[in-house]
Amino acid sequence: MTSNSWLAKFQTAMQKWVEPIAAKMSQSVILTAIKEGMIASLPFLILGSLFSIIVNFPYAPFVKWLAANNLTSFLNLPYQFTMNSLAIIVAYFTTRSYCKSKHVDNVIPAILSVMSIFILAPLKIVKVKGVATPFIPFDNIGVKGLFLALIISIVVGELYSLIIKANWTIKMPDSVPTTIGESFKSLVPVILIAALMTLVRFAFSFTTYGDLNSAIYTLLQVPLVKIGTSPWAILLVVLLNSLFFFFGIHSMAINSIVMPILYTLDFQNLAAYHAGHVIPNIITWRFFYMTSKIGGTGCALGLCLFLAFFAKSKQFKTLGRISLPAVIFNTDEPVIFGMPIVLNPIMFIPFVIAPVVSFGVSYLATLVGWVKPVIGLALPEQTPVLINGFLQSGPAFVILQIVMIIVTSIIYLPFARIADNQALAQEQGNQ
Question: Residues near 107 by Cβ (< 8 Å), separated by ≥ 6?
Fold first, then answer.
């Protein structure tokens, strides 16, 4: 059996079994809402990360100067009120996205999600000058409350849309101003959903957990985070990223499932860095992205460099040079669909192997201490390679990324040469 026939049979089998599952996941309203909610929260995460860098800048005289001038506590505020209120931010944007997909008003249910989290969060009491004052700890609206926020976002969004579409609303006369009419239209779903959340809070007060957030954190978030720290689990995600994209389905279809888990690990690292503690996690969302997506899905930067500077065919040389600026910013769709890599048996093996090798070697390098763990800064995924490595870990990680670019280039080289020679022969035959 020739290699081409084997690849053709493998491709047919994958199309039969994997493609339908991948397509269904990519069309999931819930996964899309979670993905868009996390992405929409990015400006606030970047804000918190930026001020965390300032307060913990790796230059002792500067840090001492901030403390001596009583600036540290003030510069800490943006970090405190973004990272420590993450559940609130994510809940708002996730509900908006979900309700938008259901074609109902998305502002009121988004605010209702935030209110629901407050209802469900356990209140603590502190005495201020002898007066008992209730407050909600940051733990319940920050990273620890992230999974509760995602669940509540979807539940509130779904209930709100169901009630609105069932016409369980108060309809005002046409003469009433639109703003007032919309407010009364939302009144019934707001009351019903708030009452349900209050009932849930009351029911969980009789359990050993005390509240829903603690139950979810213990039963769901902690086990899922442990899975997220497993290199084997994330290697599977890396593999699925390439498989999905090979069939033309965006890798976010699978990444939206693991994103909340890996984001949580990033936040743990950033909190530890902010407090001056040892960084606890090797695998995080940033580490996953910086190692398995050097130039985008499939670690395509090495391939693009070959196309731009060493390809013999005009077709691939032009494609490489046009695509290189985008690939430097970790956006490789021009190469994936322009070469194409999608459904191209020749490129299947390197497209799958390259990111697996890059992630695996980078994990081992971090595990043995050759490079430092990433600190979890909320940099955009489009931050260019080498720059993200320097900001997240330091010069050693930059060297590691350079090595991985070379290694993945070598993995792509024999397959890219075959495709290039085929394109060159076609060009010469057309002349």
Answer: 96
Q: Are 286 and 267 in contact (CB under 8 A)?
A: no
3 state SS of 135: strand
H helix runs in 276-309, sequence order: 285-292, 301-309
Dihedral sign for Cα atoms in the order 272, 138, 46, 69: negative
- Residue 280 to residues 56, 259, 404: CA-CA distances in angstroms? 17, 18, 24
- Positive/negative CA dihedral, 260, 265, 268, 273: negative
Q: Rounded distance, CA 398 to CA 395, Å?
A: 5
Question: Which positions ≥6 away from 266 have C-beta within 8 Å?
Answer: 281, 284, 285, 286, 374, 376, 378
Q: Tell me the pLDDT band of 122, cut-offs 50, 70 and 90.
A: confident
DSSP state of 58: S
Q: Residue 40: phi, psi to the nearest 5?
A: -65, -25
Is residue 294 within 8 A of residue 313, CB to CB? The reply is: no
Residues 211/120, Cβ–Cβ less than 8 Å: yes
Q: What is the pLDDT of residues 48-93, one digit of tens each?
A: 877 877 887 766 788 788 888 888 888 888 888 887 888 899 899 9
- Taking the C-alpha atoms of residue 93 and residue 95, their distance in angstroms, rounded to an integer, is 6
Please compute, for residue 297, the number of CA atoms within 13 A of its CA located in the half-sphere on the CB side: 28
State pLDDT tens for residues 295-309.
888 888 988 888 888
Distances (CA, A) of 308 to 66, 318, 325, 394, 413: 47, 7, 11, 29, 13
Do 258 and 279 meet the contact criterion of CB atoms below 8 Å apart?
A: no
pLDDT at 97: 92
Closest CA to 280 of 146, 404, 375: 375
CB 293 within 8 A of CB 262: no
First to last CA, the chain: 34
Taking the mean position of all CA atoms in its chain, how far away is CA 112?
24
Mean pLDDT score of the chain, rounded to an integer? 83
Q: How far apart are CA 40 and CA 26, in angstroms?
A: 18
Report residue 126 CA to chain centroid gap. Answer: 36
Contact status, residue 55 vs residue 274, Cβ threshold 8 Å? yes
Contact 285, 263 (CB under 8 A): yes
pTM: 0.74
Q: Kindly write down the DSSP assignment for every residue of 307-343, as one continuous string.
A: HHHT--SHHHHHHHHHHHHHHHTT--HHHHHHTT-TT
Other C-beta atoms lying within 10 Å of the C-beta of residue 275 = 8
